Amino acid sequence: MPDLEFEKRFAELGIVIGVDEAGRGPLAGPVSVGAAILPEGFSHPVINDSKKLTEKKREALFDELCEDKTIQWAVSLVEADEVDEVNVLKATHLGMARAVEALGVEPGMCLIDGLAVPNFPYPHEGIVKGDSKSLSIATASIFAKVTRDRIMREAAVRYPGYGFEKHKGYGTKGHLEALRTLGPCPIHRRSFQPVAQLGLPLGGNEESGDR
Question: Are strands 72-78 and 107-113 parallel, antiparallel or unpaired?
Fold first, then answer.
């Protein structure tokens, strides 16, 4: 289970922020990046890498954490069109910087899940599998994941037929079949190969002006 060992290691530098993303791999929807600052001595028996939690547990944790006024957090979204414009890796790095900036504090150290980020505007440390090691990264992962999941459930209503409420934009068999039948909708990442290969005009509800 993640703990505060990394946070304690860098505490003398100032405010320590955990950063993690959700939605780098899907064919549709935004990249969501969470940033979280935990109070000194914080502990929780359930918080873990969001991928290791059930959707029901993540949702309950999200609501619980939102009510805890001792936790500072922010989520940044990089929409599909910007992902297409700059590529998904750069989009993720942009989202990380924006999430940290949204907290409105001067970070002493940002703990980022994964590798170090080139040209990141804040002091940072990349921690491979950080969401299973650092409690602030794991908390950030929950904020990022649940925010994105809720957005994709809303997208399922706006763009029916794709099954976004089930696969959240990932390239499942059902999603690929819907893509072949309906074509891409406005939240699909046109630069991602399974979408780009179709070479079809935008689908969804574009004709009704629902973009």
Answer: unpaired
Nearest CA to 89 out of 110, 107, 124, 116 is that of 116
Burial class (CB in 10 A: 0-12, 13-18, 19+), 205: middle
Q: Collapsing DSSP states into helix, strand and coil, what is residue 11?
A: helix
pLDDT along the chain (211 residues), means of 10: 97 98 97 98 93 95 97 98 97 98 98 96 98 97 98 98 98 95 95 80 39 26
CA 88 to chain centre: 12
Q: Quick check: pTM over 0.70? A: yes
- Taking each helix axis from N to C terminus, what angle separates 135-158 and 55-67, rounded to the nearest 10 degrees? 110
Domains delineated in the chain: 5-155 (3.30.420.10)
